[in-house]
From TrEMBL:
InterPro entries tied to this protein: AtsK-like, TauD-like_sf, TauD/TfdA-like
GO terms of molecular function: metal ion binding; taurine dioxygenase activity
Example GO biological process: sulfur compound metabolic process
Protein name: Taurine catabolism dioxygenase TauD
Entry keywords, A to Z: Dioxygenase, Iron, Metal-binding, Oxidoreductase
Database matches in Pfam families: TauD
Domain TauD/TfdA-like: 9-276
Signal peptide stretch: none
Organism: Hypericibacter adhaerens
């Protein structure tokens, strides 16, 4: 099985397609090693045409580490669409009896990483229903973005601490919350530049676009510096966009990427199952 696996880079700043594998079946050690190596090298990988149940999705997810249970309260029928509520999440805009079966709905998700309470490592999505247009997932290679910085700017941000603002990470909202002092945010404190726990590479580590505070700076100076960083990392040359097809399995490394999502077109059904793999506390 290992010899049949083929890894095809997207040609963009990150991402690769993995071919020649059926992840509904138990992979041998060589196959698991090859898939994890592709994930670490390319920051995001996808496998087309996979037919998985929740148990098979969990078995595949374990290649990347310990799958987390999410015991946070939710306001949707998660138990209606997965055998493992709290372990396999539902990401969907589908409703039953007027109540969503999953999270995120149809709105656009802005640039962010998943960072609370401890940043995740791998996130895995399996596409069960995909709308004809819209809802593609976009990524930024934060390792490449850091490497491209001028040396003097690297020195300016290295060893800095950033507070990831504790606001709603999920959707762009029309009703903006009351403006607060970002330096007083209860969000977690992390290195602004972190070292990857597996590869040793450095990358910029941000939470949600528009949020955050760099500790020790006046708020205006922090805002200006964060805006400069966001403008740098979200340049097209650091991005890749995954065009979803039904049956896709998509895996990305949350430690060295940020991601966003386009809005679902009206009337389009979107339903994915998601697992999350435990990360580590970021280090310098």
């Amino acid at each position: 099985m290992t010899a049949a696996i083929d890894v095809i880079p997207t040609g963009a700043a990150l991402g690769a397609e993995v071919r020649g594998v059926d992840v509904s079946r138990e992979l041998d050690a060589g196959g698991k090693t090859a898939i994890k190596a592709a994930y670490l090298k390319h920051k995001a990988i996808f496998i087309r045409g996979q037919q998985l149940d929740d148990e098979q999705l969990l078995a595949f997810s374990a290649i990347f580490g310990r799958v987390l249970r999410d015991d946070r309260p939710v306001d949707y029928h998660r138990e209606l669409d997965t055998r493992y509520p709290g372990i396999v999440d539902v990401v969907s805009n589908v409703e039953i009896d007027g109540k969503p079966i999953g999270a995120l709905g149809s709105g656009e998700a802005i640039w962010h990483s998943d960072t609370m309470p401890i940043p995740n490592s791998a996130l895995i999505l399996h596409g069960l229903e995909i709308p004809a247009r819209g809802s593609n997932t976009r990524f930024v290679n934060m390792t490449a973005a850091y490497a491209a910085l001028p040396e003097d700017f690297k020195q300016q941000i290295d060893r800095r601490i950033v507070i990831h603002g504790r606001t709603n990470y999920d959707l762009v909202k029309k009703d903006k919350p009351e403006k607060i002092d970002p330096s007083q945010s209860p969000g977690p404190w992390f290195p602004l530049v972190r070292t990857h726990g597996d590869t040793g590479e450095k990358s910029i580590f941000l939470g949600r676009q528009g949020d955050g505070y760099i500790v020790g700076l006046p708020v205006e100076e922090s805002n200006a510096l964060l805006e400069r960083i966001w403008n740098h990392v979200t340049q097209p040359k650091f991005q890749w966009e995954h065009e979803w097809r039904q049956g896709d399995v998509l895996v990305w490394d949350n430690r060295c990427t940020i991601h966003s999502r386009g809005a679902v077109i009206p009337g389009g059904r979107r339903r994915l199952h998601r697992t999350t793999v435990e990360g580590e506390w970021p280090r310098w």
